[in-house]
TrEMBL record:
It comes from the Bacteria. It comes from Ectorhizobium quercum. Residues 31-386 form the FAD dependent oxidoreductase domain. InterPro entries: FAD-dep_OxRdtase, FAD/NAD-bd_sf. This is FAD-binding oxidoreductase. Pfam families: DAO. Gene3D superfamilies: D-Amino Acid Oxidase, subunit A, domain 2, FAD/NAD(P)-binding domain.
């Protein structure tokens, strides 16, 4: 059985209303045409509109329809897989320091845009906690804390007493606390960004999928079913939800699915004991379980599908319940997972965004690999700089030819998850730590 990713999505049920938009009908002109109204496209269009550039944003569905409206709402300005030393080795300088600087300060940009445009999106910045369910995990977290602190992040290691006071869980031996982490209603944020683009003079057209892009008179004609945009430059920012528009762009990544679930609003007594400081919590296992509250007091938790988990509805809800009550044995009320949905991630080997030079005046950015809210929010600065004429050598991402993701990436993330689960379970048994259920 496959869950419906739209009808049961909490954010589509609770987000602020979308701004009024229409499909593109007829032919218009612009300096820049941005394709895709997720965070990357929205922030790119916003940056350009703020600088007086004539910009048109085209979206096949509605603003935030894809990953920007289906993620779990966590906003942690870190990288999803590689540590900072590995990134420096892989990317080289100056590229590594540039993108590290952008990503680690991404929440500053998020906060600034929310404040500047009065975006009502349940924004809370009470920090992110990655726990250690076994003693041997602490050195790894210490290395993370040291690396990110050296890069300017406000983070530190906390002991088992402080992590219990902060999260209410007695299970952790300590944790990495990143005080700049936040969480939000991600669809409300996307819709707020769309309003901001329009407020700054940008044009947003929804229900307008891009079918083709062709050169015309030294510019580019971006064609939709009912109209076209003639633009000097074109930016594709469609991510995991890329469908057509440019040949083989959808082959530059492989899809990995993630599921998110939300409980009923928990009673006040439970909320006083579980995540009492309203942080975002990661249980620290490689087979992740990340959770936080929304404005209504629902726990919103996410995991990756694995075997029956994600395929069998009843079993999946039981796994979610068992993990949460293991971490928080003080939960006494029955948990009802009232919302359940899937999102899709555009995975590629480096796990940081790839910037592709498609043709003179046309670029694409894909491969965010699951770190969407802060990453998409900071990418607008990079893509808008390109559109404004910043030389390639001065950008924060290296321009490269369109790269086809290997077939291996279709299975590698899933294999890694299984390996991480095995590794964590084996180490926990060796150290005598209590294992979570379904480990």
């Amino acid at each position: 059985m496959r869950f419906s990713p739209f009808d049961t999505t909490l954010w589509f049920a609770t987000a602020t209303p979308a701004p009024e938009t229409h499909r593109l009908d007829g032919r218009i002109e612009a300096d820049v045409c941005v394709v895709g109204a997720g965070y990357t496209g929205l922030t790119t269009a916003l940056e350009l509109a703020r600088k007086g550039v004539s910009v048109v944003l085209l979206e096949a569905q509605q603003a935030g329809f894809g990953g920007s409206g289906r993620n779990a709402g966590h906003c942690t300005p870190t990288f999803s897989y590689y540590g900072l030393p590995a990134l420096r080795k892989m990317l080289g300088e100056p590229w590594a320091e540039r993108i590290i600087g952008r990503q680690t300060r991404a929440n500053d940009r998020v906060k600034e845009m929310i404040s500047a445009y009065d975006i009502d999106c349940e924004w809370v910045q009470n920090g992110y906690v990655m726990g250690a369910l076994r003693p041997g995990a602490m050195p790894v977290l210490q290395a993370k804390a040291d690396a990110y602190a050296a890069a300017g992040a406000r983070c530190r290691i906390i002991d088992r007493h402080e992590v219990e006071a902060m999260t209410g869980s007695p299970r952790f031996y300590g944790a990495w606390y990143h005080e700049e982490g936040g969480h939000m209603n991600p669809l409300s944020y996307a819709r707020g960004l769309a309003r901001a683009v329009m407020q700054e003079g940008g044009k947003v057209y929804t229900g307008s999928p891009v079918e083709d892009v062709q050169p015309e008179g030294g510019r580019w004609s971006v064609r939709t079913p009912a109209g076209s945009v003639l633009a000097e430059k074109v930016i594709f920012a469609t991510g995991a939800y890329t469908v057509g528009g440019w040949k083989n762009l959808d082959k530059s990544f492989r899809i990995m699915r993630v599921f998110v679930a939300a409980t009923q609003p928990l009673d006040p007594e439970t909320r006083r004991q579980v995540l009492p400081r309203n942080t975002t919590m990661h249980d620290g296992r490689g087979d992740i379980y990340v959770y936080k509250y929304n404005r209504e007091g629902r726990i919103v938790a996410s995991m990756f599908p694995m075997g029956r988990r994600g395929a069998d509805p009843a079993y999946t809800r039981q796994v979610m319940t068992d993990r949460l009550t293991f971490l928080h044995p003080q939960i006494r009320e029955p948990l009802r997972w009232e919302y359940f949905w899937f999102g899709e991630l555009d995975m590629q080997m480096r796990t940081i965004p790839r910037l592709y030079d498609l043709a003179p005046g046309v670029i694409a950015c894909t491969g965010l690999s699951g770190r969407g809210v802060p990453t998409g929010s900071m990418l607008g600065g990079i893509l808008s700089e390109w559109a404004l004429g910043t030389p390639e050598k001065d950008l924060s991402l290296r321009m490269e030819p369109l790269h086809r993701a290997s077939f291996f990436m279709s299975v590698a993330p899933k294999l890694r998850l299984r390996y991480f689960r095995y590794q964590d379970t084996r180490a926990a048994r060796k150290e005598g730590a209590v294992l979570p259920p379904h480990a």
